Amino acid sequence: MTSEITRATLLNRGARTATAFAIGGTALGTLAGSAQAQTPSDNDLAYLRMVIASELLAIDFYTKAIALRRFPPAADSRLREALENEQSHYRTLAAAMVDAGQVPAVAGDINFLYPRGGFASRTSIARLGTRLEAMFVGSTLGAAEGIESDALRLQVAQIAASEARHLAMFSVLEGRGVIGPAFPPALSIDQATTALSLFES
Prior knowledge:
Elements: H1 7-13, H2 32-36, H3 42-67, H4 73-99, H5 122-146, H6 150-173, H7 189-196
Helix pairs in contact: 1-3, 3-4, 3-5, 3-7, 4-6, 5-6, 5-7
């Protein structure tokens, strides 16, 4: 049974850990300085916590999928590149949290939950990846719409574009077309946290 992730949970989750956090390099690092120049509002911190929770789920999913060695070398290489993207996303957003005096959530704060059989085969992993990445695209698009800081909004929009490429990768692995809707749906923060609650507690 899962416990639903609420906005209040996301606002307070970072405070549950006192783990020292080291910020590494990131592909989005060129924007980090401008994003950190202004203290995020409570609204923006709520969105950051939601996207960080999504990134931690993505990192856990890709790590598990790669470890199972279900895919041929070319596909495995793409999964590893996607994992590196997710880790870069996390580091960048966590840096913004740290700069605002907040403690970002880490994997140990979350119990990751997956549907039965989700990692049973190459096909099931690709199907699960499609489901997750569609959720990540929607949640980051919604965050890009709702975030007030221009610099943070741009970073999250860049992450949405990255997640869309990951979604296209899984569409190929599933043998489907890679061209999706012209205007992918954006999820509100409540819709995104409800969707996340199926995979995290």
